[in-house]
Amino acid sequence: MPSGLNAFMRIDRVILPVPDVRLAAEWYVHEFEFQIARTGSKEIDLNVHEGETLLTLTESAENQTFRPLPHLDAEGHVPCFNFYTHWEDLHGGWFESRGIRITEMMQTPYMNVCEMTDPFGNVIGICHEKSNSLFYTPSSGPIPPMFHRVLAVFLPVRDLESSIRWYSDVLGFKLHNHWGQGADLVIGAGETVVTMICMDEKPQRQAIQAMKGRAYYSLQTSDIHEAYRKLSTMGVTDGPCRQQNGVNMFHVKSPEGLTIRISEKELIQVG
């Protein structure tokens, strides 16, 4: 990279806004058997089966209005992120029996996808990759879990080639697969990929506006202070580096307006 910044190890979490973190955690643990990894006053991290990327439930501050995470593009079946399932039918019947709303399944030569809406209004993708897909993962046991891991984070972009260059040059992403109207990129040795979706100007602008400056995923760095220093010199940081709930973090903003969280876990010293 031009600046030598190569400290991003992986996507360490996807971030879901909820009105009450404890109530939301109870729901996800009960319905999907996710396990609580960390509990803070306004955030709870959940393990998605044995996947390395956490699902982070975050509660708005008292002076902020709760807004669930919407589709980036409902017509195009583009959520902010998705869960990988081994089940080809995406558990459609089970979701119906539980009263959880899902969209109609879309089938392509490489995958089956749909989106679910949780009780708090958040839209989350569900994806089964077929055996001819680059991201197919066979089940390791006779009875697969409901969800195996966080498969992908989606980025709505207007200029695909410029976006690939920016994320590669500034954040160290590596192009894995370019398929014309989109591209898959990897971060370090992380298992969760970034999928860029090229959109027309109006839907892309609406997708950015719907985020209202919120980050819905986080990159993990081994040295957050050095990362902040280098990204600050590039002029891409958005606010200070701070500590919250035991996590050191700051944010950067892409040229097209998406906010990205940068995180490093550190122990808070008390007393």
UniProtKB/TrEMBL annotation:
InterPro entries: Glyas_Bleomycin-R_OHBP_Dase, Glyas_Fos-R_dOase_dom, VOC_core. Gene3D superfamilies: 2,3-Dihydroxybiphenyl 1,2-Dioxygenase, domain 1 (3.10.180.10). Pfam families: Glyoxalase. Residues 149-265 form the VOC domain. PROSITE patterns: VOC. This is VOC domain-containing protein. The lineage of its organism: Bacteria, Bacillati, Bacillota, Bacilli, Bacillales.
